[in-house]
Amino acid sequence: MEIAVIGIDHNKAHINIREKASFATYSSREKVMDELAAKGVEEIVILSTCNRSEIYISSEDVDRFIPYVVDIYRKATGLMDIEKFLTVMREDVAARHLYRVAVGFESLVLGEDQILGQVKEAMEHSIKKKYSKKILNKLFRCAITYSKAVKTKFKISENPLSISYIGLKKLKNEVESFENKTVLIVGAGNIGTLALKYMLEERPKKILMTNRTHNRLKAIVQETHHIVPIPYEKRYQYLAESDIVISATASPHKIFTKENMPDIKKKLCILDLALPRDVEKEVGDILGVKIFNIDDLKKVEEESKGYRQKILKAAMAEMKNEIEEFICWKAGAKVDPLIGYIDDKCKKIRKETMSYIENNTCISEEDKVSIERFLTSQLKEKFKKPIINVKKSQSQTQLMGLKDYLSLMAEGYGE
User: Fold this and answer.
1) For residue 261, how many other CB atoms are within 10 A of its CB?
2) What is the rounded CA–CA span in Å between residue 234 and residue 232?
3) How far apart are CA 13 and CA 17, in angstroms?
4) pTM of the entire structure?
5) Is 215 found in the same domain as 151?
6) C-alpha 57: how far from its chain's center?
7) What residues bind substrate, as annotated (predicted)?
8) Per-residue pLDDT tens for 198-253?
9) What are the beta bridge partners of residue 290?
């Protein structure tokens, strides 16, 4: 089984392109996974974050299926030349990429808190839909375990690093202080609740909050008494009294459009942390309104570049060992069905041999036990070396030859 990842991220594609292929909802991911499975792809995981969407696949011949994945991105974005915005990686390069993503080395900010949860969520959703199986389950679990270890060892997450936190820093540079400001937060998911947490520390004059589903908002209000819940359908009405809007929903459509905007009579800063974006870009044409989106936070990447390189260099040796272990495991997994067949064959041989001995000789129970132990050890020894060679083999031709040899050995023993 081979692995590959095909994806689009903030390094190669503007948010205008990324939001069209974000696969942010479960239903959109399931549609893609169903389509690829129908083509014959055996395992699929889709990772969707505010900075990237990536489709991980595993099959016997991934090169056969990569064009199908590229076509999915082409249809989603409407770009015939989508290839120039995509990154395609295979085998150990693909595995290394996921490890880097899980730790946060590929994020706008090193060690960004949310990415590990998003990697885990992508894996769990695919497992639930029975699209992530032995190979991708192992890869994602190894990457998650590695990420936790690196974050702990290098204390990457000691400081609050997240898109929400960086976004608030950007806003603070714009408005200087939140003290006399009214803030409207739209969206009660992970990003929205993190934005609320950081904003509470800034002590603004008032925090308004709304969410499409009331139950989630109600739970937050019960935990936090310093916010004012407002009906989602009245969100436009409250813009007039707001100085700052932070929007982070999972809506596939724009929730703030220029056509529906009220008369804005004072400066209004909008931080749009959603992908696809929540705010129509034309809203920024309104006098006094300024919009910041995820791509506007990119300069933070440069600010943390030196620290990022220092940590990455220290972690690379461990990452290399982890990847090598995974690739070796994956090579061995190719012959697991054959090894299972050989194991069953050995059990059958042992059972038939012992049955023959019991029916045709008069030996003690103690001797029977000794004979069975000897027979078991001899069968294991006979197959041990070729099985080890099969697991270590990196050559597809050599692997097929060893598999055929083992099959013939097992068949011969049964005759």
Assistant:
1) 18
2) 5
3) 6
4) 0.71
5) no
6) 12
7) 49-52, 107, 112-114, 118
8) 898 889 999 999 999 888 888 888 888 788 999 999 999 999 889 999 999 988 89
9) 269
Q: Are residues 393 and 277 in the same domain?
A: no
- Mind listing the pLDDT tens digit for each residue in 333-389? 766 666 777 777 778 888 888 888 888 888 888 888 888 888 888 877 777 776 666
Instruction: Report CA Rg, the chain.
Output: 28
Respond yes or no on whether the N-terminal peptide bond of residue 276 is cis (omega within 30° of 0).
Answer: yes
Is residue 312 within 8 A of residue 156, CB to CB? The reply is no
Other beta carbons within 10 angstroms of residue 205's beta carbon come to 11
Q: Which domain holds residue 79?
A: 2-159+304-332
CA–CA–CA angle 125, 113, 129 (5° rounding): 0
From CA 324, how far away is CA 345, in angstroms rounded?
31
* Residue 260, both tokens: 């529906």
DSSP state of 78: T
CA pair distance 172, 150, nearest whole angstrom: 31
14 and 132 part of one domain: yes
Q: Is 50 annotated as catalytic?
A: yes
Answer for the pair 235, 262: CB distance below 8 angstroms, yes or no.
Answer: no
**Do the annotations mark residue 192 as ligand-binding?**
yes
Is 113 part of any known ligand binding site?
yes
Q: Is 107 annotated as a binding residue?
A: yes
Residue 31 CA to residue 96 CA, distance in Å, equals: 27
CA distance 43 to 327: 17
Q: Is 50 annotated as ligand-binding? A: yes
In terms of Cβ atoms closer than 10 Å to its own Cβ (0-12, 13-18, 19+), residue 229 is middle
Residue the block writes with tokens 């060892």: 153
Residues 58 and 124 occupy one common structural domain: yes
